[in-house]
Design brief:
This protein has 240 residues and is mostly helical. The protein contains 8 helices and no strands. Helix 4 runs parallel beside helix 8, helix 6 packs parallel to helix 8 and helix 7 runs antiparallel to helix 8. The longest helix is centred in the middle third of the chain and has 36 residues. It is globular. It starts with a helix and ends in a 65-residue tail after the last helix. This is PLAC8 family protein. It comes from Eruca vesicaria subsp. sativa (Garden rocket). Keywords: Membrane, Transmembrane, Transmembrane helix.
Length: 240
C-alpha cells in the first residue's frame, strides 16, 4: 500500500499537460466523444490496444495497477482478457489507460479535471447512499428521489468517462503525429507500471551547458623589471 501511495504522489511532479482538457474534448472531437458515450467498452478496448502500440504481448490486466494484474492469464489470451476487463471492469479499464499514458508521457491532471472526476465519484456515492436509505425507510417519495439521483449519477459517469476516453484518443493522436508533429517511437516493454522511470526534464527546455569563459587571456607572470639579469660569475670575481 505504501508503494502505491508513493507512485500516486509521483504523478504530482509531472509537468506536461494533456493535449486537451476534459472541458474541451467535446468540441475537439465531437463524433468520437459521442461514440465513447454510446459504446464505452468498445472504445476502451481500442484505446488500450493503441496505448500498447497494438502489441498485445505488452498487455497486463488493468495495466499493472490492480492486485489482480499479472494473475489472470494475460499471456495466454490477452485479447480475451482485455475484452473481459473492459466489459466487467469498465471504470478500471478507463482509469488504467489514463494512468498508462500519464506515466509514459509524464502528464499531470489539472485541478479542473480533478474537480470533474471528483464530482463524478461523489455523486455516485451520494446516489448509492440515498438508494440504501430509501430501501431501509420504505418511503415511496424517497425511493423516487433516489432513482432520479441515481439516473443523474449514471449520466454524469457516462459523460465524464466519454470525455476521458476522448482525451486519451487526442493524446495518442499527438503521439502518433496526427497533428503534424514527429511521431514517437515505441518505448521498451515493461511488465508492470512505469512509475520506476526517472522523471525527464520538462519538454521545451534544452539541457544546461556552460560555455567556456571568454575575454580573459591565459594567466602568465611578466618578468621582473628594474633588475639586470643575473650573470655568473659576478663582476670583479677572480677567474681561475
Amino acid at each position: 500500500m505504501a508503494d502505491k501511495v508513493e507512485k500516486m504522489k509521483a504523478r504530482q511532479d509531472y509537468r506536461n499537460l494533456w493535449h486537451s482538457d476534459l472541458m474541451g474534448t467535446v468540441t475537439a472531437d465531437t463524433p468520437y466523444c459521442c461514440l465513447a458515450c454510446v459504446c464505452g467498452p468498445c472504445v476502451s478496448y481500442l484505446l488500450r490496444r493503441r496505448a500498447l502500440y497494438n502489441d498485445m504481448s505488452r498487455y497486463t490486466c488493468c495495466a499493472g495497477y490492480m492486485p489482480c494484474s499479472g494473475r489472470c492469464g494475460e499471456s495466454k489470451c490477452p485479447e480475451l482478457c482485455l475484452a473481459t476487463e473492459v466489459f466487467l471492469c469498465f471504470g478500471n479499464s478507463v482509469a488504467s489507460t489514463r494512468f498508462l499514458l500519464q506515466d509514459e508521457f509524464n502528464i499531470q491532471t489539472t485541478q479542473c479535471d480533478n474537480c470533474i472526476i471528483g464530482f463524478m465519484f461523489c455523486l455516485s456515492q451520494v446516489a448509492c447512499i440515498f438508494s440504501i436509505v430509501a430501501c431501509l425507510v420504505g418511503s415511496e417519495e424517497l425511493s423516487e428521489a433516489s432513482q432520479i439521483l441515481s439516473c443523474c449519477a449514471d449520466m454524469v459517469y457516462c459523460t465524464v468517462c466519454a470525455c476521458m476516453q476522448t482525451q486519451h484518443k487526442l493524446e495518442m493522436d499527438k503521439r502518433d503525429g496526427v497533428f503534424g508533429s514527429q511521431p514517437m517511437g515505441v518505448p521498451p516493454a515493461q511488465q508492470m507500471s512505469r512509475f520506476d522511470q526517472p522523471v525527464p526534464p520538462p519538454v521545451g527546455y534544452p539541457p544546461a551547458s556552460y560555455p567556456p569563459a571568454q575575454g580573459y587571456p591565459p594567466a602568465s607572470y611578466p618578468p621582473a623589471q628594474g633588475y639586470p639579469p643575473a650573470s655568473y660569475p659576478p663582476p670583479g670575481y677572480p677567474h681561475h
